[in-house]
């Protein structure tokens, strides 16, 4: 059983283990920058950050933790939480189920029997969920999304306009998904606007430290570790964690749940955030991706930490299991 220090020394310990794993993983230079959205290839491939924030709001930050990058698919998790809060589980479930697909995140795929997207973490489900953002027009709906992020981050985030324009220019597959959702009666008849909003949410700029804070909030039953605000209800946080564990890593989700066992969400911008329930959030930024669209170094950091410290949520030796 791994010995973890008490609350006072926890953050120092986290700092130490993150610095150590950072050094061990830094030399890994496999993977490619995402280029199907051309603007995403314009980042420094060597950037690397590891950030942790505990449920008490303490943080340990290593490497390029203040570097901004686009959140991409990690936004899907936050929007899913907002949809559950605003519309309730039943209405959300009518649009997106909770079945992992085993297919790439941008597969043009619907559950034809149930007339819904497979899950909210792949593009079809995410677009169906973004369609649920309330507001009379794009400006109002954008404002709602940015306000949601503001509650998690403690500041209103910026949007990378170049990436957003690039997504817009190259997003034909997402457009195809949007219109398929309309054809199936899953979304409302404002697909072009909803896609604009989806491109925008993916282009929101965050740091690894921001992601760790988001993770810590979700891991803390939806209570923000610093402001103490209830950002999402505990049941919604539970649903977010569950879907993150089963679907958060796209077609790598099964292997991820099996080997790493930490609810997590990745994005093609190179961000990866994991939630350790009751403990905190752990985030990595490194933009070189594997064939699934997950950060290569990000995966390695989580694999090592999970293995070395028994962090799998079902690990009987887990240092922070409820009974300890
Ligand atoms: N996996 C991702 O991060 C995908 C998000 C990206 N904006 C897309 O829609 O293709």
UniProtKB/TrEMBL annotation:
Report the protein name in the record.
Glutaminase
Q: Where does substrate bind?
A: 73, 123, 167, 174, 198, 250, 268
InterPro entries, per database record: Beta-lactam/transpept-like (IPR012338), Glutaminase (IPR015868)
GO term, biological process aspect, one? L-glutamine catabolic process
**Which species expresses this protein natively?**
Ilumatobacter coccineus (strain NBRC 103263 / KCTC 29153 / YM16-304)
What this protein catalyses is: L-glutamine + H2O = L-glutamate + NH4(+)
Signal peptide positions are: none
Report the sequence similarity comment from the record. Answer: Belongs to the glutaminase family.
Indicate yes or no for the key word Acetylation. Answer: yes
Q: Name one Pfam family in it.
A: Glutaminase
Quaternary assembly: Homotetramer.
Listed Gene3D superfamilies: DD-peptidase/beta-lactamase superfamily (3.40.710.10)
GO molecular function terms attached to this record: glutaminase activity
Domain of life according to the entry = Bacteria
Q: Which UniProt keywords apply?
A: Acetylation, Hydrolase
Enzyme Commission no: 3.5.1.2
């Amino acid at each position: 059983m791994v010995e973890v220090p008490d609350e006072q020394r926890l953050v120092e310990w986290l700092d130490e283990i993150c610095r150590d794993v950072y050094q061990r993983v830094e030399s890994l230079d496999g993977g490619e920058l995402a280029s199907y959205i051309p603007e995403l290839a314009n980042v420094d491939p060597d950037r690397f950050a590891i950030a942790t924030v505990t449920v008490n709001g303490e943080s340990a930050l290593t490497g390029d933790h203040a570097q901004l990058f686009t959140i991409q698919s990690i936004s899907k998790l936050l929007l899913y939480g907002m949809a559950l809060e605003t519309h309730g589980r039943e209405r959300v479930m009518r649009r997106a189920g909770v079945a992992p697909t085993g297919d790439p995140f941008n597969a043009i795929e619907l559950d034809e029997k149930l007339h819904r997207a497979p899950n909210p973490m792949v593009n079809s489900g995410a677009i169906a969920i973004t369609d649920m953002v309330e507001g009379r027009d794009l400006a109002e709906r954008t404002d709602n999304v940015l306000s949601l992020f503001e509650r998690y981050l403690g500041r209103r985030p910026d949007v990378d306009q170049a990436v957003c324009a690039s997504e817009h220019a190259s997003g034909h597959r997402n457009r195809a998904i949007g219109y398929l959702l309309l054809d199936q009666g899953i979304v409302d008849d404002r697909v072009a606007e909803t896609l604009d909003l989806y491109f925008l949410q993916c282009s929101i700029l965050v740091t690894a430290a921001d992601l760790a804070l988001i993770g810590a909030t979700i891991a803390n039953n939806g209570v923000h570790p610093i402001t103490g605000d209830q950002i999402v209800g505990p049941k919604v946080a539970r649903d977010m964690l569950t879907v993150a564990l089963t679907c958060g890593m796209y077609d790598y989700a099964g292997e991820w749940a099996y080997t790493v066992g930490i609810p997590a969400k990745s994005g093609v911008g190179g961000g990866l955030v994991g939630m350790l329930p009751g403990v905190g959030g752990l985030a990595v930024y490194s933009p070189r991706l594997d064939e699934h669209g997950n950060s290569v170094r990000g995966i390695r950091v989580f694999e090592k930490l999970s293995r070395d410290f028994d962090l799998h949520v079902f690990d009987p030796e887990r240092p922070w299991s409820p009974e300890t």
